[in-house]
Specification:
single chain; mainly beta; Porin; 8-stranded antiparallel β-barrel; elongated
């Protein structure tokens, strides 16, 4: 028969050995990393998108923007707290009210933009899928608010046909002449992104994106993870 002391030592050894094995196999918590980033973008408002709000317009509008991000990354998930600036000046010209006939008085305005811009604050959550040692696919979405500054002015106009650039002119009997348009001082920001991210070093992430930042855009940026 095995001595009681030997049996006790065997049980204790097995117990401590099993505990050590479980401790070694237990998954380690994901490391939280903090970084700062900068980005630039160019947005586009094609006529098809503008027709959600007006019947006709001078054509494609585009402008530039930039932003700063404070990022928190855990594993493959990044939460970015962003601050941005975008110029919102469109194309000066004749705009037809939604559902309006350009040949009917009161349906057309000549619109000019005067340093129209917004300052945005938003939160975006992006996930990453590693497709190569140094390359990731990224996708995400976010929400925020934009503080609008600048003016959009309009003048009542008349057209003799639907050719806005050739056959329209200011209405001599128009009531509104170079009057500021009603623009809300704060607008929502809806952000959706798809992109690729290059990771040449563990602390440096470079990305290019296409997406929707209240309007379609293409952009690029970099994030430094320093903590």
């Amino acid at each position: 028969m095995m001595p009681k002391r030997t049996l006790l030592l065997g049980v204790l050894g097995a117990a401590f050995g099993s505990s050590s094995a479980l401790a070694e196999e237990a998954p380690q918590p994901e490391k939280i990393r903090w970084g700062m980033g900068a980005k630039v973008r160019r947005w586009y408002a094609p006529p098809l998108l503008q027709q959600l709000f007006v019947e006709d317009s001078p054509g494609l509008a585009s402008n530039d923007g930039a932003g700063l991000d404070f990022a928190r990354r855990t594993g493959n998930v990044e939460v970015a707290f962003g601050f941005g600036f975008d110029r919102l000046d469109g194309r000066d010209g004749y705009y037809v009210e939604k559902g309006g006939d350009p040949t009917v008085p009161g349906n057309v305005d000549y619109v000019t933009f005067h340093d129209l811009q917004w300052f945005t604050a938003e939160v975006t959550v992006a996930s990453h899928a590693r497709i190569h040692k140094f390359l990731e696919f990224r996708y995400g979405a976010g929400l925020g608010l934009g503080l609008v500054r600048g003016e959009m002015r309009k003048t009542d106009s008349l057209c003799t046909s639907d050719r806005l650039a050739q056959d329209c002119m200011p209405d001599p009997a128009g009531v509104e002449v170079d009057q500021p348009a009603d623009i809300p001082p704060v607008l929502p920001v809806v952000n959706v992104l798809l992109g690729m991210q290059l990771v040449p070093f563990d602390f440096l992430h470079l990305h290019v994106d296409i997406g929707f930042h209240s309007v379609p855009y293409v952009g690029a940026g970099a994030t430094l993870y320093l903590w």
